[in-house]
C-alpha cells in the first residue's frame, strides 16, 4: 500500500492549467523532494492533494483510500510567509493548533495536549520560547514552531511547503535532522524544495515538476542533468551551475 | 429604571456585542466587509418587514443575518472567480444596499423604517420603544435585541473558539486538518449582521462600524493574547459608550455620534501611547537601540 497515489491531477486557476495530468506514487518511509522552477505548481500540488483547492480532474489516494482531511493521517506545514505573525498568540498556542484536528468540536485542548505540544517544542529546540509572542521570534524560530505544530499533528505523512526558505544554517540542520528522525519512525515526508545544491544530500526520492511531472524516482537515477534541463528549460545561468551540482556520470 | 440608565445599558451592550465580534474582523482583515454588511443588512430588514408585515425584532435579526451572509457569499464568489476583493466588496455592497433603498421607498414609506434612522440611529428614543416578549415585562426593544445577540455571539465564540482562532491565524492549515473554513467565515458574517441590526436603533449603520472596529483595534495594541484581546475590546466598547453618553449630555450633542467619537479618541490614545505596540514606545525602544 502506497502512502500517496496521485492520478491525472489537473488544476486550473483561470483557464490556464497550473498542473496538468500529474501522476505519481510516493513510496513509504522516504524523504521526498518536490523540485521545480518558480511557477511549476509545487505549492499548488500540495494544496490540491490535501483538498484545499478544487481539482479540475484527478484522484488522490492516501493508503488506497480517497483522501479526506478528517482522517488526520496527513500533517501539513504551510509556507512561513502565509500567516500573519503579528497574530496575538504565543509559540505553545500555535503548536497546540496541531492538536485541533484530534480534539474535535466544542472541546478545548487539555493537559495531555499541552504536554504533547511542549514535548514537540522541545524536539525542535524551542521549549524555552513556549510563552514567547510569535512576532518576537526570528524567521528560523518561527519555522521551528511550524514544524513542532506538524509533529503535534502526529501524522503518518507530512507535506511541507518550503521549510528551508529564509532560515539560518543551524535551523536548516535541525530541520533536516528532524526529517530524518521522522523517516526512521517510518513516516513519509514530502518537501517542496528550492535549493538544488542540497537535493542529493537530503532526499531519497525526487519528483521533478514543471506543470507536468518531468521525472520521478530515487534521487540517484532521477536527479540527472538531462532531467533538470527538461524541468528548468533554458535557464542558462542555472545550467552552468547545474553541471557542478549534478556532476557528470 | 431611569431614562439615563437604559441608554447607558443599551450603549454598553452594543459596545460589548460589537467589541467582541470586531476582534475577529480585525484579525482577519475584514473591516471593509463589515462596513459593507452594515449597509446591506438594510435590505434584510426591509425584506423581513415586507414578508412578515411587522417590525418584530426577531424577524429583523433573521432577515439581516440572511442578507449579511449572502453579502459575504457574493463577495466570496466574485473574489474566487478572479475579481479583486475590494472591487468585489464595492460592487456587492452598493448593489444590495441600493435594492434595499428602492424597496424601502416603494413599499415601506409610510412606516417607521426610514433610511435616516437606519443610517444614523437614535439612542435617545430607545427607552420609549418598548415591546413585550413572552413572560417578560415591557422592556426597550433595543435592550432585548442586543441581549439576544450578545448571548448568541458569546455562545458562538465559546463553542467555536478553536475554529475561529485557527481559521483566523492560518486558514490553510485549518483547511488541511478538515476545519470547514468557509462555514466558519459565514457564521462570523452572520454574527456581524445580527450585531449590526441589534445596534442599529442605538448607533445606526454608519457609526456601528466605529463600534465594531475601534475597540478591537485598540485592544490589539494592548495585548498579545486573543482571549484578553476579546475581553479588553468588550471593556473598551463599554467605556466608549459610557464616556460618550456623558460627553454628549454635557455638550448637548448627538449621543451616538459622541460614542463613536470617543471610540476614535480611545484608539488614537493607544495608537500613540500603548505600552509596547504604541508609536511612542516603538520610537523609544529604537532610540535605545541606537544609543547602545
Automatic annotation (TrEMBL), chain B:
Record GO cellular component, one term: ATP-binding cassette (ABC) transporter complex
Top-level taxon in the UniProt lineage: Bacteria
Naturally occurring in which organism (per UniProt): Robertmurraya siralis
Membrane topology field: Multi-pass membrane protein
Name of the protein: Manganese transport system membrane protein MntD
Record-stated family: Belongs to the ABC-3 integral membrane protein family.
Classification via Pfam families: ABC-3
Transmembrane segments: 6-27, 32-51, 57-75, 87-108, 142-161, 173-197, 203-222, 229-248, 254-274
Key words, A-Z: Cell membrane, Membrane, Transmembrane, Transmembrane helix, Transport
Single Gene Ontology BP annotation: transmembrane transport
Subcellular location: Cell membrane
PANTHER family: ABC-TRANSPORTER METAL-BINDING PROTEIN, METAL TRANSPORT SYSTEM MEMBRANE PROTEIN CT_070-RELATED
Originating gene: mntD
Keyword field contains Ubl conjugation: no
Taxon lineage: Bacteria, Bacillati, Bacillota, Bacilli, Bacillales
Amino acid at each position: 500500500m502506497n502512502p500517496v497515489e496521485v492520478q491525472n491531477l489537473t488544476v486550473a486557476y483561470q483557464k490556464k492549467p497550473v498542473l496538468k495530468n500529474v501522476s505519481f506514487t510516493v513510496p513509504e518511509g522516504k524523504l521526498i523532494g518536490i523540485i521545480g522552477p518558480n511557477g511549476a505548481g509545487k505549492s499548488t500540488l500540495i494544496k490540491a492533494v490535501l483538498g484545499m483547492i478544487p481539482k479540475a480532474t484527478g484522484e488522490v489516494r492516501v493508503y488506497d483510500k480517497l483522501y479526506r482531511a478528517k482522517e488526520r493521517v496527513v500533517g501539513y506545514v504551510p509556507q512561513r510567509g502565509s500567516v500573519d505573525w503579528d497574530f496575538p498568540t504565543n509559540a505553545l498556542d500555535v503548536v497546540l493548533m496541531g492538536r485541533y484536528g484530534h480534539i474535535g468540536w466544542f472541546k478545548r485542548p487539555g493537559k495531555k495536549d499541552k504536554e504533547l505540544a511542549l514535548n514537540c517544542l522541545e524536539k525542535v529546540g524551542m521549549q524555552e520560547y513556549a510563552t514567547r509572542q510569535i512576532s518576537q521570534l526570528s524567521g528560523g524560530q518561527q519555522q521551528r514552531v511550524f514544524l513542532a505544530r506538524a509533529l503535534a499533528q502526529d501524522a503518518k505523512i507530512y507535506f511541507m511547503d518550503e521549510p528551508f526558505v529564509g532560515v539560518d544554517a543551524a535551523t536548516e540542520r535541525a530541520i533536516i535532522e528532524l526529517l530524518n528522525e521522522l523517516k526512521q519512525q517510518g513516516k513519509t515526508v514530502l518537501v517542496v524544495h528550492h535549493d538544488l545544491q542540497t537535493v542529493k544530500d537530503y532526499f531519497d526520492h525526487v519528483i521533478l515538476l514543471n506543470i507536468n511531472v518531468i521525472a520521478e524516482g530515487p534521487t540517484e537515477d532521477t536527479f540527472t542533468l538531462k532531467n533538470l534541463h527538461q524541468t528548468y528549460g533554458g535557464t542558462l545561468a542555472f545550467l552552468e551551475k547545474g553541471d557542478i551540482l549534478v556532476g557528470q556520470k | 429604571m431611569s431614562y439615563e440608565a437604559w441608554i447607558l445599558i443599551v450603549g454598553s451592550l452594543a459596545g460589548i456585542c460589537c467589541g467582541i465580534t470586531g476582534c475577529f474582523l480585525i484579525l482577519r482583515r475584514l473591516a471593509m466587509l463589515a462596513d459593507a454588511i452594515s449597509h446591506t443588512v438594510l435590505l434584510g430588514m426591509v425584506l423581513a418587514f415586507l414578508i412578515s408585515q411587522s417590525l418584530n425584532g426577531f424577524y429583523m435579526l433573521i432577515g439581516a443575518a440572511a442578507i449579511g451572509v449572502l453579502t459575504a457569499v457574493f463577495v466570496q464568489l466574485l473574489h474566487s472567480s478572479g475579481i479583486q476583493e475590494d472591487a468585489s466588496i464595492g460592487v456587492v455592497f452598493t448593489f444590495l444596499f441600493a435594492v434595499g433603498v428602492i424597496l424601502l421607498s416603494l413599499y415601506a414609506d409610510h412606516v417607521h423604517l426610514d433610511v435616516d434612522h437606519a443610517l444614523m440611529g437614535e439612542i435617545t428614543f430607545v427607552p420609549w420603544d418598548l415591546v413585550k416578549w413572552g413572560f417578560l415585562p415591557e422592556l426597550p426593544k433595543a435592550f432585548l435585541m442586543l441581549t439576544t445577540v450578545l448571548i448568541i455571539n458569546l455562545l458562538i465564540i465559546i463553542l467555536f473558539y478553536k475554529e475561529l482562532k485557527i481559521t483566523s491565524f492560518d486558514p490553510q492549515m485549518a483547511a488541511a486538518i478538515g476545519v470547514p473554513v468557509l462555514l466558519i467565515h459565514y457564521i462570523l458574517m452572520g454574527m456581524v449582521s445580527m450585531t449590526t441590526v441589534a445596534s442599529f436603533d442605538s448607533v445606526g449603520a454608519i457609526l456601528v462600524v466605529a463600534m465594531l472596529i475601534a475597540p478591537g483595534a485598540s485592544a490589539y495594541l494592548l495585548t498579545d493574547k486573543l482571549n484578553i484581546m476579546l475581553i479588553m475590546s468588550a471593556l473598551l466598547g463599554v467605556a466608549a459608550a459610557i464616556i460618550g453618553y456623558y460627553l454628549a449630555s454635557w455638550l448637548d450633542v448627538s449621543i451616538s455620534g459622541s460614542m463613536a467619537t470617543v471610540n476614535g479618541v480611545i484608539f488614537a490614545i493607544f495608537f500613540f501611547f500603548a505600552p509596547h505596540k504604541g508609536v511612542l514606545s516603538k520610537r523609544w525602544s529604537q532610540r535605545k537601540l541606537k544609543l547602545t
